[in-house]
Each structure stands twice: as C-alpha cells, then as structure tokens.
Predict the 3D structure of the following.
Amino acid sequence: MKLTRLFAISTAVLVTLICLMLSRIIFAEWSAYQSSRNGLEAMQVAYKAMVLAEKVSFERGPTNGVLGDADQHDPAKRARLAKVRADSDAAMADLAASLRPEGARRQDEATQSLQKARSLLTAARAEVDQVANLPLASRPPERVMGAVHQMFDVIPVIMEAVTILSRDAEEAYPRFSDALVGARLAAELREYAGRLGSQFTAALTEQKPLGAAEQQGIHVLRGRIEQLRMLIELPTHTRETDDRILAAAREMEQRYFGDGMAFIAAVERASAENRPYGMDTAQFAARYVPDMASIVQLRDVMIKMAIEGGKERNAQARRTLLSMSLLGAITLLVVAAVFMVIRQRVLRPLLDTTRVLVDIAQENLSTVVPPADRADEIGDMLRAVGALKEGSLERRRLEEERGQLIEELRQMSSTDFLTGLLNRRAFAGIADSQIASARRHGSPLSLIIFDIDHFKKVNDQYGHDAGDLVLVEIARIARVTFREEDFVARHGGEEFVALAPHCELEPAHVLAERLRLAIEAATVLLPDGRPLKVTASFGVVALSRPSDNLDALLQGADRALYAAKEGGRNRVIDGATRLSA
C-alpha cells in the first residue's frame, strides 16, 4: 500500500474521531440546554400552580362573606364572589394551557391532579351556593363549616400538582432548590393562614362564641403555621440569602405574624369573653386577608429569583452551545487545513505520529511517543504529541478526582452536618420509596416523630453549644436504638423523624418507648463538665390506608406528638392517620 493512500486512510480515521468527539460535546451541550429550558418551563408552570392555589384560597374570603350574609343578600358580596371565582377559573385555565401531558410523565400527573381539583372546586362551589341561599336561621354551623371544608379540600390537590411540577425544576436547577422549596412552603403557609381565618366563619355567621371544634382547629392551625414559619426562616438566615428575600421575610413578619396574628388574637379574646365581634364574615375577611398578602409577596420574591436564575442559566447554556458549535466547526476546518499541509510536506514520520495520535484519541494512554530529538517541525510535533498524552493523563486523573469529589458531595447533600443523620430532603426521598413499596407489597410500616422537650430552655440557659451537644447525643442514642433497617433523620431544629419498615403500630410504639427511656436515662456532659438530663416526646403512626403518603403520616405523627406534649411531655402517643378527602 502506498504511503499516500495509507496517509489518506489515517487522515480519514482521525477526522472521523474528531467529528465524533465534537459531536459528543455538542450533543452534551445541546442536552444541557434542553434540560435548562425544560427546567425553566417547569419552574414557570409550577409558579402558575402556586398562583392557582392562592386564587382558590383567596376565594374563601368572599365565600365566607356570602355564607355569613343576611337573608337580604348583599349584591356587592355576591359580585365580589363572582369576581374571585372568575379569577380562579382564569388561573386554572392558564395552568391547564401551560401543561404538556404528551411525553411528560410528571406533567401528565399534574394534569390529573388539576382535573381532580377542578371537580372538587365545582362541587364545593355548588355546596356554598346552596348553603348561602338558605335563610340565615336555617344555616346550621356544621353545614356552613362543611361547605368551608369542601373549599379546603381543593388546595391539597393543587399543592400536589405544585410539588410534582417543582421536581422537574429542582432536578434541572439544584442550586435554586432552596428558593423553590421556600416558595412552595410560602404557598402552603398562605393556605393555612386562610384556613385559620375560615375557622371563624360559623361563629361570625351566628355571632356566637367559638365552639370547641373551632378552638381546637385554630390551635392546630397555629402550630402548623409556626412550623411553616420556621421552615421558611431557616434557609433565609444564611450569609448567602439575597436582600430581597430578607426584606420580604421581614415584611411578612411585620404584617402577617405581627398585625394579622394580633387581629386573630383579638377576635379570639372577644369570643372567649363573650363580647360582640363588631363585624360579620365579610368585614373579618376585609381586615384579615390583606395581611396575608405579605406571604404571597415572599413566595413571589423567592420564585422570581429562581426564575431569574433559571433564565440566566438557560442563556448561559445557549451561549455555550453556540460557542461549542462554532469551536467545533473551526476545529474541523483547522484540522482539514493542517492535514492538507502535512500531506504535502510529511509522509514517513507521520505514520508513527498517526499511530500515537490514534491511540491517544482512543484513550490508550500507555502508548509510547517516539523520541522528539529532531529540531524541525516533526520534532515539534512529536513533542506536542507527548504534551497531549501528558495532558490526557492529567485529565484522566482530574476526572477520577472529580468523580470522588462528586460522590463525597452527594454524601454530604443527604446528611445532616451536625448529627450525621439523614437530612430532611434525603429522608423524604427514602420515605416516599418505602411507603410506595409497603403499599405495593401490603407490608406494615410505621413513622415516629420525636423532639426534645424544652429544648429552647437548654439553648437559653446553657448556650447553643450545649444545645448542639444535646442534639448529637440524641442522634447517637437513636442510631443505636433503632433497627438496622430503620431510617432516622433530623427533621428540623430539635425534631427527629424515623421510618420503620415492616413494623406494625404496636411494635413501633415499643420501639419509641425504648428510645424514650434511653434518652431519659442518658446524661449529656456540657462543655464546662456539668451533667444535663433531657427528655423527649413521641408521636407514632402506622400506614393504614392505601392512599396514605408521607405528608399524611407526618401530619398524623405531628398530631400525636402534639398530644404527647399536651399530656405532659416525656411520653409516647399513638395517632391514627387521617387524610383530607
């Protein structure tokens, strides 16, 4: 075979390899661009779902006003209700138009949730209209509150769609997951704030004191609101938090948790003292609802920042794709020109060089580069080939180190930095999988929530270093007490959560009691050597219905934990899981 022909074949092989590498690079950049664009779209659609939840929740204010209206219906109240219903319908239509069910599993799931929410909303509105058209004396409180609760039932279904849609965005933009989660929590806080106000509907309608059920509901909702408040505030207390989020958080603290909650407390006092309220349901809503706008403002700031970041990343991915495409084209042109020059000037030495280049292109870095002892262009080329090999070896080493670093970061992302237990996000992923498996195989599963009694007093009296020692010791005791197959996590602050697969409610109760006794018997040595005793309260629930999910188990365990605290702390209480319809 002639050298010219051999050179032509070798040239064709090298050009092909370069094209494959460039194609792989460009394909990777194209995939990154598509992923960022889809993530940005998912973020925007999730925001529309949050807006829909807000609109439906806001609809309850005018609904309460109509439910508490006199026999002579106020046209202004009816017109206002019609207006907010139209706004909700418009938001629902906008969200439905933005979903792309075909080929997108999560958006198909979100579409199903939206259809369910539409059906529930239609039924709830029909019940509200029937109750509102009754004479005032014929509106029993239980039916008024039943209509209100039917409106409540719509929001969890919409929030399910928000969660589904947010996952795509969080996977595409892990960097903005805190902002997305914060926005979702703020949307949930807005809903619970609305529910808190709706607890007064029956009492204001009849102008009577709050009943025991309403008082209990208010107490539970306050606890959930405070929990969401804490979860939202945690990621905003870092040095990296944007000033816009901090300003919106301060505004929420002042308006809702300051003015709004003070107003709620004043109405509660009027009920407790059996004084006239001095307002009807519509006037109550007109006073209370504007303070909730600060929650929506915080949500919008968080989601706006995430969307801005997503747009910036998407634009960067597009620029990178274009630059890599241009660079690939330039590379091909340069390679072609170089081979044309080399074909005219070099034949024999190129055979050895071609062999080495092919080996390097195929990641065979053990190949031997011929000695570069010539002072002409061939010698320079051989020296360059040697440098290329060393660079490839260095790149391989860096890639191996990067792989190790990625694995270390993955481990850190799923672990609580203080206690070494699973963090909340990692636990949620594991729990969803375990609950799905338990439902699929019909096996038992229990969830235990516990937190340290009077933990704030420990921090106040002994300092946060002492509080950290207590948390670390409780985590250590939990690790040695729970079974190997159990999953234990720090749920937030001084609260811990454990998932016990293949465990009925009674064995889970025994397991929790064993941990309670171990904590009660333990002694924490403070930094100054003083001993400290702590106790913990526990709430235990078991998977009982095919439709139960992690949120339902957490809510049931929270109620049981609340009962344990109400019962004097340092005890284990079982709770049955109940889901909203």
Observations:
- The beta strands are 445-452, 487-492, 495-501, 524-525, 531-532, 536-542, 572-574.
- The longest strand covers residues 445-452.
- Residues 348-413 form a domain with the Helicase, Ruva Protein; domain 3 fold (CATH 1.10.8).
- The mean pLDDT is 83.
